[in-house]
Structure formats: C-alpha cells, structure tokens
C-alpha cells in the first residue's frame, strides 16, 4: 500500500514538474516577470524598457512588415501608442523574424515601413532572435502587456489586440485597451489571455 | 492548474454565448462566392465558419485524416503543401487530406483560387472564415497559440496536433505512426 502511495506521489510530482518545465519552456505566463532587453531601433539607437523612466508599463508587440495579420493591425498598433504612451503605457514593437528567411523584414524595410505608416513607437529588431523565445511569442502579431512594479515588469496580458482582424469598425472586444484601462484604473483585467491567428515567427 | 482550466472554460463559455448572436448566414456567403468563382475561374470553393468546419475535422470512420491549416500568404505553409499533396496521392485508399485555407475572404478570387488552379491541388481545399478566433483556436486544440501552419492528424482512436511546419520525412513519420 505504502509503495503504491509513494509511487503515486512520485508520478504526480514528475507530472507536475513536467508541466512546470513546459510552461517555462514555452515562455511567460500571466504573473511572470518579463525580461528587459537592449535591442536596436530603426533609428540606430539601442532601446531598453529601463529607458522609459516615467512608464507605468508597456504594450510589447511582436510584429513585422510581411505578415498580412500584422499589416492588418498596423494602424491599430499606432493608435494604441498614440492613446496610451502619454498615459504611461507606450507600445514597444519588436520584429522577431529571421531576416535571411524574410528579407522584407530587414532593418531597411522596417525603417521604410515605419516611415510610410508614421509609426511613433520604437520598432526594434530582435537581432539574434533571443528575446521572442523568452517571452514565448510564436507569431506576429503577438502582444504582451507588462506592468512596471518594484519586482520588475509583470506580464498582465498575452494575446491579440482585439477580436476582429478584418474590420476595425466591427470590433466588439478591445482586449488590449480593456487590459490597459483596467491597469490604469487599478482594477482587475477581465480577459488576460486570448488567441488569434498569426504568421509563425520565421527562424 | 485548476484555475487555468477554469479560466479557459470561462473564456470558452463566454465566447460561446457571444457566438450565438454573431453567426453569419453561411449559405448566403457560399452562394455569393460560388457564383463569383464560376464566373472568374471555374473553381468552386466551399466556405465554412467554425460550426461548419467542426464536423469536417472530427470524422469517425476507418480513414486517417490529415487536416492542414494554411494560407497562400504563409510561406512555410506553401513550402510544405506538396508533402500533403503527395500523401493524398500515395495513400488515397486510407488517408483523407483536407486543406483548410485561412486566406482573407477578399483574396479568395484574386489569390486562393488562382493558387489552387496553378498548383492543380488534388486534395480537398476549403476556405475557413470565422472571425471569432478566440473561440475556435482553443476549440481546435487547447495548446494552439494561433501560428500557421498547423496540422491535425487523427483517426477514430487517436488525435495529434502540430503547431509547426513539416519536412517531407517528418510528415511521413507522423502519418505512419497512425498506420497499424
């Protein structure tokens, strides 16, 4: 009897640890502390989250030039930055693709796109592709909302910008706006994780 | 763990509730699109929302089903498409391949149908258009983050989900794990 119980406990422990490991392996969950980085912006300067002394948090957005879903959201990402940077939640865009696989996402192309679209947020290159796996981003666009705390930048939301990639006018749920509004108001975020189709990050 | 399960359940339930009011009359879309198709390229295309797609990816019969989610704009999807076509040709007697396109509806005539024609796709291709991704992505597989390509291989006893691209060899190996 005792052996069985020990065995059961061991199996349970292994299973649980397997789960824990898997979560770590797959990037951040809600409540985790997100890593800071130092990545090159399209203006040639290096950007870190720590540079934003007055920020209350960040809308970290993995995005790129070449994915139709990312393109569909370009204007909405810019609108988020316009609305929330001044409230303390700037958009920090990171381009995670391997530019040898996707030349349309190289630094020159990123610069051109940002200029054409009038991006006011930093558009950073994940050179060496070391940052996106830590976050667990799998696709573009993929959003992580972080709240700056004494412990570090805490992950508060992971997922999509809203519930309608096709038509900004037909959006019913503004996941990112709702989450940032809740953070600004000191309230609980209603929906902390959402799924959406995107382009797999090119390695 | 429990809390996560509860949360997912809540989200799923919440979304389900919403969907009831959101469903687009599908027959209307199909009619319109098919008419256009015949006019344009003489290729018909069935278009489904998730309620329409669900039975097509949950068949219970003697076959092995390979369902590939792809789009013409997705480079790794296009790259692996010939491997699915090969499976469809080589194991026609016991494997059924379904290519589920996530192309944007505005591109059905301009991109998807010309692509189907150009590459002479022999596997069944359907278009999948359902805006409520937060409902159907986790319904298709709880671990799917939403990246393309993605593939399901299943038969009546077993079901595997892959959020990845395949090489020809990898796909063969996975498929053969269903052969007995």
Please list the strands of the largest sheet of chain B in the order they lie side by side: 1-4-3-2-6-7
What is the name of the CATH class of the largest domain in chain A?
Alpha Beta
Distance between the first and last residues' Cα of chain B: 35 Å
Task: Give the class-level CATH name of chain B.
Answer: Alpha Beta
Largest interface summary: A-B, 29 and 26 residues
Q: How helical, in percent, are the residues of chain A?
A: 25-40%
Subunit organisation of the chains: heterodimer
Taken as a percent bin, the fraction of beta residues of chain B is 15-25%
Q: What would the average pLDDT of chain A be, to the nearest integer?
A: 91
**What about the largest sheet of chain B?**
6 strands, mixed
Question: Which terms would index this structure?
Answer:
heterodimer; A: 203 residues; alpha+beta; Glutaredoxin; 2 domains; eight-stranded mixed β-sheet; two-stranded antiparallel sheet; 5 helices; 33% helix; 21% strand; globular; B: 180 residues; alpha/beta; six-stranded mixed β-sheet
Could you please describe the fold and organization of this structure?
The complex is a heterodimer of chains A (203) and B (180). With 203 residues, chain A is α+β, with helices and mostly antiparallel strands. Chain A has helices spanning 2-25, 68-84, 107-117, 131-135, 175-185; strands at 33-34, 39-41, 46-47, 57-62, 91-95, 123-125, 139-140, 142-149, 152-159, 198-200. Chain A folds into two domains: 1-27; 31-200, Glutaredoxin. Chain A has five helices and ten strands. In chain A, the strands form two sheets. An eight-stranded mixed sheet of chain A has the order 1-9-8-4-5-6-2-3. A two-stranded antiparallel sheet of chain A has the order 7-10. Chain A is globular and about 55 Å long. Chain B has a single domain (24-176), classed as Glutaredoxin. In chain B, helix 1 (2-22) packs across helix 6 (133-140). Residues 10-39 of chain B have low confidence and may be disordered. The A-B interface holds A 19, 67-68, 101-102, 138-139, 142, 159-160, 163-166, 170, 172-173, 191-202 and B 1, 7, 11, 18, 71, 73-76, 102, 104-105, 131-134, 137-138, 144-149, 163, 165. Strand 10 of chain A pairs parallel with strand 5 of chain B, so a sheet runs across the interface.
